[in-house]
């Protein structure tokens, strides 16, 4: 996720706090959007205006940092802040909160094969109680979730590939290869009653896709808000948005919601494309990413050892 704010600044996800250690979130618990809150339906978004003036901001009033970062971190953050501004100017696809899927033709190909992904998900969910809370893998997520209400099943993230998990979901992994610039791929599981408060991703050089896999009824009781627009997931439907904007998600239904959660490189012109490539590759070596990889490996060791014991027992 990313530093919190009213408009936006930054944009990427799974071990997502690698660029900004001082992710910021509201000091008071966020309230869920009410039925009276004026919002725009994502399907009514106007066509992307690639020449439009960027509308992001890079600060959040009234939100203080969790900790004071080290000098090296402050230097990196200063560099990232400048690159983020460049990314806005160099975007090939504009900078809206939600994107028209026509901008990314491969999204339709992903949707066509969603039943294969759902079939593999169903097998994974036979051990849903054993899946990790998101915060157990990426500790920075504890700023918005500290319980088992938000779970994950990771296939890949920031240079790390889970061979064990990919073996469980070979079709899902094959389908994800259709996404140019794939960075992160996983199942995101939101349990009944779970609310992820307003937050923002750390860096705007990536975009996010959600593919609805299990979307319980009533759909009016669950959704995601990005900036001032709400979207309600639909099974087999993909939505692409920029998590650099403030966003929140909720599931008020009595059933589990699951989406395929993907981050991919934002299409940029030079020199933004080169600097974005450089920062994303540097991120792989940061302590934040390494910690997430170590946590994931430790969880997999336990998870698959238990599976082996059940088979042999």
Offer a few descriptive terms:
alpha+beta, disordered N terminus, 313 residues, single chain, five-stranded mixed β-sheet, seven-stranded antiparallel β-sheet, Jelly Rolls
Overview of the structural elements:
- The protein has 313 residues and is an alpha+beta fold.
- The chain contains 8 helices and 12 strands.
- The strands form 2 sheets. It has a 7-stranded antiparallel sheet with strand order 2-10-7-12-5-3-4.
- Helix 1 (71-90) packs antiparallel against helix 7.
- The relative contact order is 0.22.
Summarize this structure briefly.
The chain has 313 residues and is α+β, with helices and mostly antiparallel strands.
The number of distinct helices, counting runs of at least 4 residues, comes to: 8
CATH third-level topology: Jelly Rolls
Name of the CATH superfamily: B-lactam Antibiotic, Isopenicillin N Synthase, Chain
Low-confidence blocks of residues: 1-40, 42-54, 59-67
CATH class, please?
Mainly Beta
Strands of the largest sheet, in order across it?
Answer: 2-10-7-12-5-3-4
Give the class from helix and strand content and strand pairing: alpha+beta
Element pattern in H and E? EHEHHHEEHHEEEEEEEEHH
Shape: globular
| Residue share in β-strands | 15-25%
Major beta sheet, specifics?
Answer: 7 strands, antiparallel
Number of domains in the coordinates? 1
Annotated CATH architecture: Sandwich
Q: How many strands appear in the DSSP assignment?
A: 12
Mean pLDDT: 81
Share of residues in helices: 25-40%
Please write out the topology.
Layout: E1 40-41, H1 71-90, E2 98-99, H2 106-112, H3 114-124, H4 134-137, E3 150-157, E4 160-161, H5 163-168, H6 170-176, E5 182-190, E6 195-199, E7 206-214, E8 222-226, E9 229-231, E10 238-241, E11 247-251, E12 257-265, H7 272-283, H8 287-312
Parallel strand pairs: 1-9
Antiparallel strand pairs: 2-10, 3-4, 3-5, 5-12, 6-11, 7-10, 7-12, 8-9, 8-11
């Amino acid at each position: 996720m990313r530093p919190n704010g009213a408009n936006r600044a930054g944009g990427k996800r799974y071990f997502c706090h690698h660029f900004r250690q001082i992710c910021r979130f509201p000091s008071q618990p966020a309230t869920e959007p009410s039925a009276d809150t004026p919002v725009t339906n994502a399907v009514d978004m106007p066509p992307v205006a690639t020449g439009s003036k960027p509308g992001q901001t890079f600060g959040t009033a009234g939100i203080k940092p969790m900790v004071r970062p080290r000098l090296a971190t402050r230097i990196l953050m200063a560099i990232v802040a400048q690159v983020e501004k460049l990314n806005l100017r160099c975007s090939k696809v504009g900078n809206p909160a939600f994107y028209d899927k026509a901008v990314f033709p491969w999204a339709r190909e992903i949707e066509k094969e969603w039943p294969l992904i759902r079939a593999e998900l169903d097998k994974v969910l036979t051990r849903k109680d054993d899946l990790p809370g998101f915060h157990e893998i990426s500790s920075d997520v504890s700023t918005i979730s500290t319980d088992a209400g938000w779970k994950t099943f990771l296939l890949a993230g920031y240079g790390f590939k889970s061979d064990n998990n990919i073996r469980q979901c070979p079709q899902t992994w094959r389908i994800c290869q259709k996404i140019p610039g794939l960075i992160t791929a996983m199942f995101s599981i939101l349990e009944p009653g779970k609310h992820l408060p307003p937050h923002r991703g750390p860096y705007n050089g990536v975009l996010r896709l959600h593919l609805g896999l299990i979307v319980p009824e009533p759909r009016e009781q669950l959704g995601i808000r990005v900036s001032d627009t709400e979207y309600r997931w639909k099974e087999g439907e993909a939505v692409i948005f920029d998590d650099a904007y403030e966003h929140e998600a909720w599931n008020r239904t009595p059933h589990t919601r699951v989406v395929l959660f993907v981050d991919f490189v934002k299409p940029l012109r030079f020199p933004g494309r080169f600097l974005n490539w450089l920062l994303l590759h540097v991120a792989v070596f940061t302590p934040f990413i390494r910690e997430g990889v170590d946590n994931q490996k430790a969880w997999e060791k336990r998870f698959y050892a238990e599976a082996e014991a059940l088979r042999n027992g």
